[in-house]
Amino acid sequence: MVDFRSPPVNPTGNVSNSRKVSQLTIDDDNQESTMITNPAQKYRRFEPIQLTDRQWPNATLDKAPIWMSTDLRDGNQALIDPMSVDTKLRYFDELVKIGFKEIEVGFPSASETDFNVVRRLIEENRIPDDVTIEVLTQAREDLIARTVASLKGARRVILHMYNPISPTFREVVYKSDKAGVKAIAERGTRWVKEMTAAQPETEWVYQYSPEVFSSTEVEFAKEVCDAVSAVWQPTPEHKMILNLPATVEMSTPNTYADQIEWMHRNLNNRDSIILSVHPHNDRGTAVAAAELAVMAGADRVEGCLFGNGERTGNVDLVTLALNLYSQGINPELDFSHIDQIRQMYEETTQLPVHPRHPYAGELVFTAFSGSHQDAIKKGFAVQTNAIYWQVPYLPIDPADLNRSYDAVVRVNSQSGKGGVSFLLQQAAGFELPRRLQIEFSKIVQKVSDETSKEVNSSNIVSLFESSYLQVAAPYNYMSSHVIDEETSNVITKIVANYDEQRIELHGQGNGPLDAAAKAISQHLGVTVTVADYHEHGMSAGSDAAAVSYVEVKVGDNDTVFGVGQDKNITTAAIKALINGVNRLLIGHAPELATAKQEAVS
Ligand SMILES: CC(=O)SCCNC(=O)CCNC(=O)[C@H](O)C(C)(C)COP(=O)(O)OP(=O)(O)OC[C@H]1O[C@@H](n2cnc3c(N)ncnc32)[C@H](O)[C@@H]1OP(=O)(O)O
Ligand SMILES: CC(C)C(=O)C(=O)O
């Protein structure tokens, strides 16, 4: 049972065993399968047309089609709460900003709202010179008259008339035959011709749609379309639009492409026709259907942002356009501000965009899993010198859509060292050596596992700082001094607090760090050695201009890393050494506990 508005009502007054999941009410008492074991008893296979010499599989997409946004008509008519006049005007302005040149603004004979939208667009001079509005009407005289009246004063208009012609509509809705529905189309076109001729100040473009083209015999669709164009009399200079809708998507996209190619090759006066498609998404393949239809000869595509529209929606124009973009083709639509466009869409339609929606969903440029993050991190590292975009797992650069890189990698228990170190580098500039990446990612993963939560960039930075930089015991570093730094006989003096006592340590070695390790060795009575050492500068303006990563070994213990920051690179290294020793002496547990607290809060 589908319940769009109200909570489930139980007429007996008993507590019903049902629950709401999103807008569906699930009845837990009734879980028997309702699907039939042999669907062939109920559903017939869609019979593809015979087109053995099809050409479209060899075609490629190399330019953008003419786009037509039907957000304000097909999209709007499918909303729970259709848009108000002001909302439609706001949406119209956004469509213009994106770059649409043809925009279907409504069905003016159907409602006062749609009539008034058209009036305000015209009277308030809101339609840019390079944009043409489109309106829809049925093939009924009174509706056409009202439609034409709504357009008084318009500079240029696409007047779009439709009537259903498919076998089911002929039999079920019109109780008519082929001749009957063809006559409706011809008669309607004559009315449009006469009434628009009476308003010559407007440049009229006529569009005809044989509704449910997708399930109509192609020979009959051609017959009706040819009859309509014979009435309208388009020319190569003044073309008309024939729009072939997959009103309901009935077949695999290759079959739709065959239907379109057949029409493209057989329609009369093809050079006077703009061939348009209007794919719906009932089978979830509208994007593929539109792409193959363009390969098959269509010049124009009608659809909606984010695939809004009746039932499963119209074809998604954002995906279509950005698919072209990802192939190096200018889509002639600008989705630079995809997040703002998505926000506008969600506010005006009251429909959410799925987080995994191609290009626009919140999560589509985000990798959680370790191997993906590792590949993305490596991809970004080489991208700076590359001509072509080649970051693995990201078909286009998120920055082109103003999506930030911060969101590209997100860390949870599925993540590995690549993601953790990528975020740390992005957020705080630390470029961890490989073994430290492995060591630190285990700390992060432990926190994520224990909390079952995502660990965000700022959690990671504070986890890193508390684990590696804020380790002030048992040695609390105060200062250091290096003598004869340029020779191989260096002396390092370290001043620190140890057990609340000020101590001074001295060591001699073949470099400042070696000497510092000797100084601590002597104090601890255990050998302290430096197993590995890395350093890099931090970004300009930082107080701690240098950072050192020192891998320390104390006695027979496993090595651990210490990290130190300072304006002076030698001091940073000595601090790193002391932090490493401290970490080993106190064990890792305390900082994990603190870090876990921070990640949860
Ligand atoms: C696939 C699509 O998306 S098509 C667009 C669909 N969009 C809409 O319908 C939204 C706006 N529509 C409306 O508000 C209403 O349908 C109106 C105001 C236009 C018309 O309302 P009503 O006059 O009450 O008629 P209704 O829509 O129920 O139409 C049914 C009648 O129109 C006929 N009809 C339906 N479509 C068409 C058409 N395209 N051309 C000619 N006649 C048509 C039907 O056969 C039926 O005739 P009958 O009354 O003789 O049986
Ligand atoms: C009016 C037509 C083009 C339509 O919306 C459809 O068939 O889906």
TrEMBL record:
It is an enzyme of class 2 (transferase). Residues 471-601 are annotated as: Regulatory domain. Residues 11-20 have a biased composition (Polar residues). Its EC number is 2.3.3.13. The keyword Methyltransferase does not apply. Mg(2+) binds at D74, H278, H280, N314. Keywords: Acyltransferase, Amino-acid biosynthesis, Branched-chain amino acid biosynthesis, Cytoplasm, Leucine biosynthesis, Magnesium, Metal-binding, Transferase. InterPro entries: 2-isopropylmalate_synth_dimer (IPR013709), AIPM/Hcit_synth_CS (IPR002034), Aldolase_TIM (IPR013785), IPM_Synthase (IPR005668), LeuA-like_post-cat (IPR054692), LeuA_allosteric_dom_sf (IPR036230), LeuA_N_DRE-TIM (IPR039371), PYR_CT (IPR000891). Its cofactor is Mg(2+). PROSITE patterns: AIPM_HOMOCIT_SYNTH_1 (PS00815), AIPM_HOMOCIT_SYNTH_2 (PS00816), PYR_CT (PS50991). It is found in: Cytoplasm. The keyword Ion transport does not apply. Pathway: Amino-acid biosynthesis; L-leucine biosynthesis; L-leucine from 3-methyl-2-oxobutanoate: step 1/4. Pfam families: HMGL-like, IPMS_D2, LeuA_dimer. GO terms for biological process: L-leucine biosynthetic process. One of its GO terms (cellular component) is cytoplasm. Residues 65-339 form the Pyruvate carboxyltransferase domain. HAMAP family: LeuA_type2. Belongs to the alpha-IPM synthase/homocitrate synthase family. LeuA type 2 subfamily. NCBIfam families: leuA_yeast, PRK03739.1. This is 2-isopropylmalate synthase. The gene is leuA_1.
